[in-house]
């Protein structure tokens, strides 16, 4: 083929491919434009309500509540959109995109979901929790490019005490005690924090290919390992047990089994949910754990299962994720 | 669009501007377009996995396990097959094609973790497969005296694509209401355009060009025995040894940026900008340093690149900090890339017999990659044992030794071949 012929062919095919690409972008931008649900007043303060992130069409991404007694029933949907949300004791935390670029921010909310303050976040938000007092907020983000082999993901935990103004930028500088001995390694990653009180917390720490449950102390800046193969801990309202996801066979590639660990005996109980659960669970009450199960991109439901190991999982809130039981926190 | 200006009739009388062969420009365009496509995906992948699919932190285990080891073997096998059939364009095209198909696979995988893992493996396999035949084609399309510049132009175009990719991805996300599938579709379309340009404009160069531009055919049967005999050539062996030795002194971008971040106390938000700074320096310096290599000696510029790396370690080991130190480190790190990545291929090309060139280049790239793998693991361990400051001092000492060793090795061979 002559050069002219090849140039024409290349230009024609390139134009066709680019036109196809642009058309796809436009179609993608205009699909599932269900009429948006009107925003209503949402009370995120303590009370008999569940707060969550809606994944229903028409209110996708927006923070909503349902009454405890009728969780699958009509919901109050706010105008606030978040990727991850949590609330306790009248304080709420919203991790959301910041502008059109792929940057994120943390929004501190009051009990009416009004934004009190925002902070820029580095990385993609993944987990959010508020201490039972409502004073300390914590989050986990994914960061890429700062691990030593390139192309890997790493995680970073941040904390903010709204009462004292104290912040924690990363847990990687905390002194680590592993199996009773001081430990350091450059490959430390932390994620999935849950608070006992404003000072003491539990989290996941990964190092050298293993994932540990650690107990931490914000004031002393220390963490120590308690158990292995525990991810995304969530402390029960009575403070005696941890709900977590346990990698099947110790290998996260095989999925996770939702389990409960008794902190006094370190005994594990596998819950009746047999589907792989990749979420930081929350407690419905001292006997029941709730968690999101994905149905695909942009679709999830919140389920409940007994924390004692028996029973069967039940659908709690359809088209929802990131649940928080507002009655569990202190007044 | 400068493609139209690509003319297959390369003037035989080289002007003072030292024309870069049309084939190199075509390969550079393919790389540019392909890098836009692949960096688009790289940029949104964490976002897609975490926000789009709601996967938790263990996703890093997903890409973690797939290691350079596998692609290294594939690279060697691909290099040998390309030589065996004397069809480098075909093997390179296969590599580009596999990566393009991987974008579609990512779309089809949906939220299936094994599916996503397989798509990422395919993408890396395609990259491993195409690198050596592509570099061999560059050496076979360029007179030996202009190789440094040719590789400089190619690498500059390559990193320009890598630069533009994330921006295109952000534009697509903004235009489609955060639809990740749109990013994969657009990326797949762009990757297909890259394959198309390869098919239509890259010529499969089977024999190298001599200074005059005439083809000097010296066909010889390609057998495993002949491929293995490559290492028996003293100059090839010295270069391989030198490349491996120097590879042992590289600790990897991640560690360099991590050390910088700790010293300068950079807010984590600015972290990605460290990589941007380095690639900007690389992008700008690739052509001038490649041209310098042609004039002043490629081995010298190559060694000079590692001297720049040594300076980076030196600065990281001292207490000099502040924005001056930061800019200097990033600039030197860019110099390191610009003076070593393409230049090594330009050094290696003429040493290798044309019919075994892909195998030879693959061998050197693999040796270097494996050495780097070893050194980054060792550095991780050193960090664990001695802490950051001790580890950087250890690597500084090691890099001084390896640079001195390979300089002796390479400069002596270099002189002997004169």
Describe the structure.
Chain B: It is a multi-pass membrane protein. Chain B: This is MFS transporter. The complex is a heterodimer of chains A (331) and B (418). Chain A has 331 residues and is mostly beta strands. Chain A folds into two domains: 1-31; 40-325, TolB, C-terminal domain (Neuraminidase). Chain A has one helix at residues 3-30; strands at 49-54, 62-67, 76-81, 84-88, 91-97, 104-109, 115-121, 124-130, 136-144, 153-161, 167-168, 175-178, 181-183, 189-195, 200-207, 210-217, 222-228, 231-235, 241-247, 256-262, 268-270, 282-285, 288-296, 299-306, 314-317, 320-325. The longest helix of chain A is centred in the first third of the chain and has 28 residues, at 3-30. Residues 146-151 of chain A have low confidence and may be disordered. Chain B has 418 residues and is mainly α. Chain B has two domains: 20-201, Growth Hormone, Chain: A (Up-down Bundle), CATH 1.20.1250; 224-416, MFS general substrate transporter like domains (Growth Hormone, Chain: A), CATH 1.20.1250.20. Helices cover 77% and strands 0% of the residues of chain B. Chain B is built from 14 helices and no strands. In chain B, α6 (147-175) packs antiparallel against α11 (271-296). Residues 1-17 and 211-218 of chain B have low confidence and may be disordered. Classes of the chains: A mainly beta (331), B mainly alpha (418).
Keywords:
heterodimer; A: 331 residues; mainly beta; Neuraminidase; 2 domains; 6-stranded mixed sheet; 26 strands; 8% helix; globular; B: 418 residues; mainly alpha; Growth Hormone, Chain: A; membrane (chain B); MFS_dom (chain B); MFS_trans_sf (chain B); transmembrane (chain B); transmembrane transporter activity (chain B)
